[in-house]
Amino acid sequence: MIDWLTRMQGKTLVIKFGGNAMVDAALVSSFAEDVAEISKSGVSVVVIHGGGPQISKALEVAGIANEFIGGFRATTKAATEVIKDVLLSEISLPLADLVTQAGAQGVVLDTSVLQAEITKSELGFVGELTSITISEFEKVLSEGKVPVLGTIARDSNGDLVNVNADLAAASVASYLSAEALLVLTDVEGLYSNWPDKSSLVRDIYSHELEELLPKLESGMIPKMQGCLSAVRNGVGYAQIIDGSILHALRNLVSSSVPVGTRVKK
């Protein structure tokens, strides 16, 4: 871990936290501990998260339909309010508290730091980021704290817009000129021929990934689109790792063997 931390000191690391790890208390705690350890070592860490499992459950309780098209959640106006509440109360605030308890200080950023416009009208209130209030991130990072943010944004009318967390994390990483984007998911990495686990890809260049994208399983497409966008917009590298194991981040930075899938320009 020391070598990796030495290379990363003074640089920015954006981590997208999501998947089933978010509903496992032990995994959330170990993630927060790893984030705090990395932050205290002089790396500027930003945590961007979605909330798939929790959002699906809350929408079901509210009697709002859950539908995915091409890996993206169809979102009504009523659903955006549910999503906002879930992201803040069930994920952002508890996660920031855990980071603080682990020795760094987690700070929840308001949804107003993300501005978006609807780009997928067939999905309802779903869009892409158009701008980010970078100064809010920079202020928190300059104080040695860890920004934590769920991916619900506001459009020019003030309406809530659901933004895919993988793509949002890539945008934030690009705006912050991050050294790396780490995407935690529930599989070991990118498989070129899922579910054949022997097809795990350890390293892939952006042009190779672009060719592979149409062949991927729908749930993996936004993650890899995010990685592709990040490296093409100035991020040093993007890496998919398995977040369903305890201390996934610690394992990544301390391992002497390749972990997950690294996307390079």
Write the layout of secondary structure elements.
Elements (H helix, E strand, L loop, with lengths): L1 H7 L3 E6 L7 H16 L3 E6 L2 H10 L6 E2 L2 E2 L3 H25 L4 E3 L5 E5 L7 E7 L1 H9 L3 E5 L1 E3 L5 E4 L1 H11 L4 E6 L4 E2 L8 E2 L1 E3 H7 L8 H12 L4 E6 L5 H7 L6 E4 L1
Parallel strand pairs: 1-2, 1-11, 2-8, 5-8, 7-10, 11-15, 14-16
Antiparallel strand pairs: 3-4, 6-7, 9-10, 12-13, 15-16
- Major sheet size, sense and barrel closure: 8 strands, mixed
User: Which stretches are poorly predicted, pLDDT < 50 over at least 5 residues?
Assistant: none
Fraction of residues in β-strands: 15-25%
CATH architecture: 3-Layer(aba) Sandwich
Q: Oligomeric status of the shown chains?
A: single chain
Coarse morphology? globular
How many angstroms separate the termini?
A: 24 Å
User: If you consult CATH, what is the topology?
Assistant: Carbamate kinase
Mean pLDDT: 93
Radius of gyration: 17 Å
Number of strands: 16
CATH superfamily: Acetylglutamate kinase-like
Category by helix and strand content: alpha/beta
Could you estimate the helical fraction of the residues in percent? 25-40%
The tally of helices reads: 9
**CATH classification class:** Alpha Beta
Give, in order, the helices and strands.
HEHEHEEHEEEHEEEHEEEEHHEHE
Counted up, domains total: 1
User: Strands of the largest sheet, in order across it?
Assistant: 5-8-2-1-11-15-16-14
